[in-house]
Records
---
Amino acid sequence: MKQIKCITLLILLLISQLGISQEKKAACCVPADDAKKKNVSQFSIGGMKKVPNINLITQHGEKVKFYDLIEGKVVALNFVFTTCTTICPPMGANFVHLKKLMSERVESSELVMLTITIDPATDTPERLAAWSENFEPGEGWTLLTGKVKDINGLLKKLEVYTSLKDEHAPIVLMGKEGEDNWVRANGLADPTELAATLNQFFDTPSKKDEDNFDQNYFTDVVLLDQNGESKKLYTDLMKDKVVIINPFFTECTGVCPVMNENLKRIQEHLGTKLGTEVNIISLTVDYKTDTPETLKKYANEYGAQDGWYFITGEQENIETALRKLGKNVENREAHDSVFLVGNLNTKLWKKVNGLAPIDEIIKIIDSVINDTVN
Amino acid sequence: MRNILFLFLFILSCTLISSITPDNSGSSEKLTPAELAGKKIYTEGIGSSDVKITANMSGVKVPATVMKCINCHKADGTGNPEGGISPSNVTWAYLTRSYGGKRISGEKYPAYTEQTLRKVITTGIDPAGNKLHNAMPTYNMTREDLNNLVAYMKVLGKAGDVGLTKSTIVIGIALNSEQNQPNSKNEAIKKMVQAYCNTVNENGGIYNRTLKPSFFSTSEQFEEKKYFMVTGFGEKEILGENNTTPSLFLCSNELTGSGLNNRNAFYVYPSLTAQNQALVDFSKENELLKKKGEVTIVYTNDNDRKAFAKTLSNYYLAKNNVLPTLLALDSDNIQELALTKQIHSNSLVFYVGSTQLGNQFLKELDNIGKTPYILTSGSISGVDLFNMPKAFQKKVFISYPTWITERSSASIRLYQSLNRENKLLSNWKNSQLNIMSMLMTLEECLKRVGSDLTQDKLIGSFEGLYEFSTGLAPPVTYNLNKRAGSSSVYIASFDPIANQLKLVSTINCSEK
């Protein structure tokens, strides 16, 4: 689910209009914008339960039933036939690569990787086995054949049926059985993209992957705090924390003092949580004026404690950070007055108007702090 | 008139025999070594250096053998559109059109040169700097391989298939050995082939092409690869494992499985392994063994037969859940083996060995009063039914890949008329009937393709044969999963009253 949440963050960042709080958590599917970018489209067949539980035979000759294979699992499913030479070998190679990327999930049987032949009359189990061996697949890939009628019925239900084999498209379906948000993707796409899509279907994200995703997104661009210390954006300021992020500059006399008064109240509310569980990150939009020394003085004015960071940095770095957080602006006066509140553990992100009454702001911040993984 | 014809045939046969030596007139192209090496890359994904060629697509790297050019661009380079992906025409004439080409996106690019062709293969960037669609892999290969590939691509699609011109089709005829004495088996086969091809050619050939047989008996001769297709005898030894020329042989040693890994090879009869295994099915169907147990496989210890004995034993185990005892027989231990406890009058013995030793073994068993069931495959082993001890008359069963009833009188008459007109050496009649049957099948498949002939289409034509009968062998059926045309194994035993072989059962065997 982590990518989803990050994508949610991105969407939040894209929304310019804001109410007092906008909230979107753990969307069920890849949003349309993203779909285009990633060669995926959403797809619903009303839950896999409605799919016929047909009899199939694996490449090893075992008799299985389709629904039994996928029940309760996250599934990656593609369609080939062994006499197809143009797109099927690359699809096979991609699928095996995807399996490698997802090896933990495959080994723990949380993910099943299935390939169904669209030419069951020709593709006997032996043939499927011989075909799959081309890709040195190892364990964990099941290829399936069966009765022509059954398989055609299934393909129709999955909306991948073509009457002419040669028109069959390189499609891979991904989703979780029982859920309604399956995704149809291009089976020739970069497997790392497919893996990212697949990962969003797991309820219990593997921590390691998740951190990597955030780390890759936010990056560890190096910044400076009011004490002149280097801080890596993700690792030193955000990792495992709840963060409250706002843009400002010291010479701003309009909204900034109001926001800072609010942040001061929030600091009081947080108490010992500040710096341990929660960081406040005030990012300058005027790196030229706001050197660490200037920021130090400014921080003292508001009585900032450990855990309230006033951040500047080299142009390129601070601009990267602002961009990643959706706070980049053409000129300093254009910065917004929105607090971005995010829980890096649960991936819940909310936006709060930094000029709103303090009680409302604190309520929202607490809801982010108290968020738990499901 | 007749004499002139004979003289003509004589001269023709001389030229045909001499065509064992490399002869280029029959094939439309003779590739240079570089082009040949390039062809291997294009069609098989195999280069000539130790460094394996790799293909890269969407960040996935695989051996080029999985993604060979021919998969997407076809043998003639014209491209094989599939699933919304359109591989380009990559013939040299097309790539170098003076006005260049246009990508689907509308971007134009100038005509290719050798240099830009090398670049597009390794980087996926066309001469205008456009990135190709990612369905075209990028390849990693040595400079030498790349040069060879480009050399081949310059002749790609120009020359048609090897061994084929507008007026001839060269058929390679594999002979088991080089012996060429008069009245030898090879001589008999050659005469048969020539007589048959002459008949076809005199009747207008196949879509105006004449059949041109060319005999060979060593892998070196075959390596010249000047044949459009091959048939004959002794496949594995001569053609090797990775033959890519369409071929029709009598039977393979191993199970033929599906055609996925050896698309080019077709066989008339079930594999020798299947012929052997049919005996197990037969013994089971007829419950020759009343209780479980007491099964031995007696084999003579040469490489081939030892391997057959081993697979037979595995097959028996899989079918009956009993592991047979394997016993190696030689001329010194016959008595000893005959005394083996597991062998007794109610036991089962599969025999994999020569006829001579087989009969000696039966005699020895008879001496000590044992008459087990003996099951043996006539194609790789044998027992001389006419000279074995009387006690075994009802206990020996032999499997054969064909049976006399599969021969039609029309086809036999055709053979006899060929024989009369061409003075065939009919003391090798069985081999002659076999090659004649294979030639008839080839002729049928060629005719079905029509004038627009390619090796690929010939294979497709084979795959379309259903219950096709030459009247000389059991009917053959081929499809994508079936490379052994006939699946029937005939089980025979001795009929003492008529003093001849009689058919006991026909087993439908499996090649899996």
---
Amino acid sequence: MPLHLKIDKTMNTTKTQTPSQTVGPYFGYGLTSEQYLYDFKSLITNKITILDSNSDYITIKGKIFDGENNPISDAMIELWQNDGHNRFFGRFGTGTDAENHFVFQTIKPKSVENQAPFVTLIVFMRGQLIHSYTRVYFSDEEVLNAQDTVLNAIPAERRNTIIAQKKAGCYEFNIYMQGENETVFFAV
Amino acid sequence: MSDLMENSFDIEVQPSHLYLAYTSTILRAPSKPLLLLKKSLTEKTGPLFEDFNLGILDNDLTKNAIKNGEPIGERIVVHGKVVNEKGQPMPHTLIEIWQANAAGRYVHKVDQHDAPLDPNFLGTGRCMTDSEGNYRFYTIKPGAYPWGNHHNAWRPNHIHFSLFGNEISSRLITQMYFPGDPLLEYDPIYQAVKAKGRELLISKFDLNLTEPDFALGYRFDIVLRGHNATPFENR
Ligand SMILES: [Fe+2]
């Protein structure tokens, strides 16, 4: 599957980007309507629908914490993964679980070009004027994680903030917006 | 790294993460610098929506939640074109919208503003851009509403927009405002945008788009981050 990045370096940009604004607290009935029990069909859910018997289904679960370590109950998380075999785009809000978890069921991505497998998360919430991008790596991929160029570009003391820990039945991935354990966010 | 830089958020236009006047940013904005990332296959692609079957009334919020009559308020029709930073159209991309009703009340259970719900108005819908990047939807003009950011804080009339483009780096969530709204001057969410970008969030009244005896027409064009108009082979 050849990929061609067609960027014409000689042309200058002509249009100014439309500014980003916060998703606000009231996205639930529009963007995650079925999860929040509103009468509007959801196009995007938190479970992959591709059925591939050779694939390894996984659950990624976590909470998002603000700068005072309180779980955030009105965030929306989107998951995007593409390893060239399986692609999945998912979405879930933290407002319906009693403990404000987000949860995704997907297929574990494969390694691309010897890099460690990962999925991308996009974080939206009231109080974020621009969304934040992070990556979820997996704790049971020690060999690939150790040689991954992105992980190795992150200061060692912060690397663990984006490695999901394998627990009984799921990978736990908590997101800290600020503080000592602040999650690594990427400019994408 | 050059590909990355060309597609980043434009700091001369975009709001910064932390904006003290918008108090919710204080505990929620990342405090450490973002890490620059060389794009991989994952970042060079994004979800495609061509297989989605939108409902026939998904782009008409004046009709998609009718229970026993028409929703109350001023009918409007919003048109626009979605392009990238080179001005190339972004075809077949999903646009999702949500908003308050004409009284300034959201259907969302968390909204406790003491203004009436409208039994015939849900306030959410969606559409796809056509092959030239154009979109259109019908709705009711949303009302202003109070919020707890500071004393006597009111949000200007606005419609929330969610867009994709063809890479996850072109993802955009924004808000469309209306021309001449006196609340814009006092709204920290709008004012957080750098001066160069603010006008771009205000729709334009357009008599040519106005449908006689039916709905006022507004134009809201959108520029997504990025330069690449050709969808990657990612299916
Ligand atoms: Fe709003």
